[in-house]
Each structure stands twice: as C-alpha cells, then as structure tokens.
Amino acid sequence: MGSQINDPQEFVVLVTGFLPFRPQWPVNPSWEIAKGLPSHLPPLRAKDPDAREKVHTPPVRILVHPEPLRVNYKLVREVVPSFWDTYQGCKVDVVIHIGMTGPRTYYQIERRAHRRGYRNADVDSELPEEGTDGRPDDPDWIWHDLPDEIISDLDIDDVHKRWQAYSSKDMDLRISEDPGRFLCDWIYYCSLSHLLRSNRPKKACFFHVPCDASDESVLQGRELAINLVRAIAESEMSVKQKEPESNGVAE
After folding, report:
1. Per-residue b/e over 113-148, b at no fewer than 16 CB within 10 Å?
2. What is the model's pTM?
3. 185 in helix, strand or coil?
4. Which of 192, 193, 194, 190 is nearest to 203 (CA)?
5. What CA–CA distance (Å, rounded) separates 81 from 75?
6. For 134-180, how does the pLDDT look when each residue is reduced to its tens digit (9 = 90+)?
C-alpha cells in the first residue's frame, strides 16, 4: 500500500490529464476533470448501501499531476517513470491516466496498451523516434523484449462492476480493449512497461472521456472519475482481504 510519512495506511492514487491537441477541441476535458478532483476520496453517499459489497478501505489520497501533459510521444515517455517513484512524499499505489476520445457519449476504461503501431503524429508533428513499428530486433530499443500488448494487473472486470454500481444508471460505462494507438495508448503502455521492467504490479488504468468540455460534462466526468477511484480502491482492498494470513512472517 502506498504511504506518506504522516499516514502510512493511505491508499494513494495519482491522476494525469492532457493538453488540447486538435483545433476543433480547444479544451481537453481530461485535464478539466483531473484538476478539480478532491485531495481525498470523499465519504460515500450511497443510495443503497446494502446493494453493494462492503469492503473496508483506508483513506484514499488523490494526487493530481500539477500540469496537463503535452500530447508528445517523447515527452510523455520521459516523464512517466517519475510518476511511479515517490511522488510528493507518497508512494503511489495506482495511476489513472485520463484522456479524451472523439464525439462519443460513453466512457471507457482500458484493459490493455500496445507497444507498436503508432501512425498518427503528435501535436509537434512527430512520430515515436523508433518509427511506427518499433525496433523489436534492436536490443538497444527501450521496449526491446517487451510484449506487444500489456494488460493491467487491476481486475478491470471487477473495477467496472463496482464503477457501474456507484454511478448513475443512465451512464454508459464500458470496458475497452483498444485505447487507439495514439497518446492515450502510448502513455498507458509507458506506465505498464515501466512497471513490468521494474518487476512491480502493473496497477495502472486508462480512463477515456468524451470530448465535450462543457461545464456540465466536466462535472459529470469528474463524478465518474471519483467513482472510478473508489471502485479501484475497493477492488484492490477486496483482493488484499482475500489473501491468506502471512502468519506474522515478514516478507
């Protein structure tokens, strides 16, 4: 579990968002959603507490990366490892990357990310420095010997069920298997590959939101982001509570 000097029992979630990248969408709702998140998960105001599994969760601290990320392959790959070190005095348990899709009305959480196939230029008209298909035979390539797909170690199906349970019934919340091979997919692979290389649990999630950046839509997206944080924290605590006792032996 993540820790802070003053409260070692906190569960820590780091959230990121992006800068705009298309003229038709001058405001990126991913950042508008992220920057307004509370510093801690608020108390649950359950409509029907008995309808949900009761899982004890510690205090959940929400950290927001202080700046929206530029939609640039090189810069994103350089900054992602810093999210997984001690961040603002905390050890991060989970990172949620938020990004926008096109003109859709539904929300998605992504299960997997991809190593290759990035054919769309970033906001600076650049492709990944290794090209669209990578350099799988080059031992000096940063992603050499990594799988073409990496799946999050979060129980995405369980997270999705909990997320739906905490959200309004009229919200269309989905699981996606393809983040789209642009910066959303890219940042997700950067996080998952960094954790895989470090032999750490791949506890990251990508949250895709519609492009609508109106006040109403941003507030709705922020509520869903809070519900997602709660769903992930509960899912992770549920797994921990099912683990066998360690019999007092330190690992």
Report:
1. bbbbebeeebbeeeebebeeebeeeeeeeebeebee
2. 0.91
3. helix
4. 192
5. 11
6. 999 999 999 999 999 999 999 999 999 999 999 999 999 999 999 99
